[in-house]
């Protein structure tokens, strides 16, 4: 067993649930050279950690050709809880199957095959990341002769049509189902005086109808009035229109959670130990952790499948379990 630790992250590859590597995928670091003691990858291969004697680096890979290295900061001593940041898809709202269906329709349009379906092994690569990364993965596997730009055009055509139908009450039945137990969970967080932020790698045009539809179902009014901050991946780039940053900086990069915490809630970096992030995806867990905060996992997503459960400070299969832990922390 590898006995070299990953400072600020954890101990061994097995303890963290990482797959041992001899070198990083970009051939920049090798075990036993340049002070590198250990290298490990998450189960889905999206992130690699490089352990040195006194620090750890995280390599966030990119299907778009723009990988990035980030330092892994220590979590530090827990402080009284001030805020809870939460993912949208799969955590607050169950909609992964809907967006995977949209991906299938988009690739089906590329192939001229309406009946196209993804394979089970594809699921970790078409959830939790950016639209472009989802599509790029599918193109490389199923139609390498096709262009990403063409796939994106199909994706947004299908998305715009379905979003409009949903807003008119005519859309795919059960597309955006509120997660079980989410209403009492959110209401108790509010009653405790905690700030609440909603964080998603989804583009605004698809993310906001999701949470709006879910809040209507729950009878909770306008989500913009409920949340203290909502951060999405912005607006898609289309011909003749301007887009916003979001396709190259989604989870597992730290920026969405960092922006919600630092800009949306107006909290300082030294307060990060008073904040937790709740996620159901491996990409989200890494994003929270690289933003310097505790990642709390909830079941139902791909955390275990992606091999990132070892990066979670807490894990529960439901909101009731997470709420019990939050109460305990509030009483400490």
UniProtKB/TrEMBL annotation:
InterPro entries in alphabetical order: HAD-like_sf, HAD_2, HAD_sf, PGP-like_dom2
Pfam families: HAD_2
Highest taxon above the source species: Bacteria
Protein name as annotated: HAD family phosphatase
Native organism: Oceanipulchritudo coccoides
Lineage, broadest ranks: Bacteria, Pseudomonadati, Verrucomicrobiota, Opitutia, Puniceicoccales
């Amino acid at each position: 067993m590898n006995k070299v630790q990953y400072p600020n992250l954890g101990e061994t590859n097995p303890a963290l649930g990482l797959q041992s590597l001899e070198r990083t995928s970009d051939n920049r670091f090798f075990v036993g050279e340049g002070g590198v003691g250990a290298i490990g990858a998450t189960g889905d291969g999206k992130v690699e950690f490089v352990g040195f004697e006194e620090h750890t680096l995280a390599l966030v890979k990119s299907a778009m050709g723009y990988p990035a290295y980030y330092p892994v900061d220590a979590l530090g001593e827990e402080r009284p809880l001030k805020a809870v940041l939460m993912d949208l898809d799969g955590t607050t709202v169950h909609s992964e199957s809907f967006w995977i269906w949209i991906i299938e329709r988009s690739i089906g349009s590329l192939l001229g095959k309406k009946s196209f379906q993804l394979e089970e092994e594809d699921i970790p690569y078409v959830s939790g990341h950016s639209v472009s990364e989802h599509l790029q993965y599918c193109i490389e596997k199923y139609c390498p002769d096709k262009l990403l730009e063409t796939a994106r055009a199909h994706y947004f055509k299908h998305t715009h049509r379905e979003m409009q139908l949903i807003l008119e009450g005519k859309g795919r039945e059960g597309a955006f189902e509120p997660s079980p137990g989410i209403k009492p969970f959110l209401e108790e967080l509010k009653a405790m005086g905690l700030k609440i932020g909603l964080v998603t790698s989804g583009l605004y045009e698809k993310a906001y109808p999701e949470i709006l539809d879910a809040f209507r179902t729950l009878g909770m009014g306008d989500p913009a009035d409920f949340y203290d901050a909502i951060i999405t991946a912005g607006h898609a780039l289309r011909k003749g229109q301007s887009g916003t940053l979001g396709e190259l900086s989604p989870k597992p990069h730290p920026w969405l959670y960092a922006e919600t915490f630092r800009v949306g809630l107006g909290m300082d970096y030294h307060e990060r130990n008073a904040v937790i992030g709740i996620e159901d995806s491996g990409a989200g867990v890494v994003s929270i952790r690289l933003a310097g905060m505790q990642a709390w996992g909830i079941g139902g997503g791909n955390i275990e499948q992606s091999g990132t459960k070892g990066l979670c400070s807490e894990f529960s299969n439901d909101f009731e379990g997470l709420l019990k832990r939050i109460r305990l922390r509030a009483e400490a």
